[in-house]
Amino acid sequence: MRLINTTTLQVVEFLSIDVPPYAILSHTWGNEEVTFRDMMLRFTEDHAVEASTRIEQKAGFIKIQKSCEIAKRDEFKYIWNDTCCIDKESSAELSEAINSMYSHYGGSGVCYAYLVDVSLSASLWKSRWFTRGWTLQELLAPSNVVFYDKDWLKIGTRTSLAKLVSVITMIPTSVLTGNRDLKSYSIAQRMSWAAERRTTRAEDIAYCLMGIFGVGMPTLYGEGAIRAFIRLQEEIIKYNDDGTIFACVGNLNTEP
Which residues in 170-185 are b (16+ Cβ under 10 Å) and which e? Predict the structure, then answer.
C-alpha cells in the first residue's frame, strides 16, 4: 500500500503488515489531477525541479497539499489519495486497488470528504459528491468521516450530520452513526442506496459496490455495465442466501 508522507508529500510504499496509521481523502475527480507518475517524477533527481513546478500548477495539487496539512494537524504522518497512490497505468495494480478500496477506507483513522462545490452545510445536499458511485463506500467504510467545504473549512462529521446525510442519501441514520451493522440490511436495501448514483466508466457502477457486499472479482473494463453487474450479483449469491437480490435490477447510471 502506498501512502503520502504528510510532511514531505512523498509517496512511500508499505507492506501490508507494516502499514502505519493513516488518514484518507474522499473527493470527486476534476481536471488536472496529480497522478502516481507525477509524484514519482517530483522526487526523481533528474526531473525534480521541472516536475515539481509543473505538478504544483495542477488544479489537483491543492487537494494533496491541503489534505496533508489537515492530516498532519490531526497527528497522522501519512494519508492515502486515490489519484496518486495507485499506478493506474498498470491494469493488474488497478484491479487489485479496486478490490482493496473498501478495506483501504475502512482501515483509515479518519476520512476527509472534500466537497469542492459546497460552501455552507445548508447546501450540502447539492454536492456532486453524493451522486457518485465510488463515494458511497467512502461514506460507509470509514469509522470516522469529516466533511470539508470548498475552502477546506470543516462542516461536520458523518455522525453530527447524520440526519441531513440520511435525507440526501436515503441511508438510515443508524448506519451513518455506526449504531447498526451494514450487513444487517438486506441486499436490496443496500443496493437501493446506489440506485441514483453515477460513474464515468460503465463497469464501475458494479465495481464500486464490491466492498459494500463483501465480495471481490477481477475488473474487466470493456465488458459493459450489464455484464459487470451480472458478475457482481453472481459473486454476492455465492456468499449470501438473501433472496432480495433478485429484486435488484440496478439503474446502471454511467454518465459523467
Answer: ebeeebbeeeeebeeb
| Threshold 0.90, pTM exceeds | yes
Bridge partners for 26 per DSSP: 113
Task: List the grid coordinates of 124.
Answer: 450540502
Rounded (to 5) percent helix, strand, coil in the chain: 45, 10, 45
What are the DSSP calls for 47-100, one per residue? Answer: THHHHHHHHHTSTTHHHHHHHHHHHHHTT-SEEE-TTTSS-TT-HHHHHHHHHH
Task: Pull the grid cell for residue 44.
Answer: 526523481
Tens-digit pLDDT profile for residues 103-158: 999 999 999 999 999 987 668 888 999 999 999 999 999 999 999 999 999 999 99
Return the residue matching grid coordinates 460507509: 140
Listed as own residue / partner, the contacts of 170-175 with beta carbons closer than 8 Å and 24 or more positions apart are 171/139, 171/140, 175/140
207 membership: H or E segment, kind and range: helix 204-207
Which residue has cell 501490508?
Answer: 16
Domain segments of the chain: what residues? 2-180, 184-255
Is the separation of the CB atoms in 250 and 198 below 8 Å?
A: no
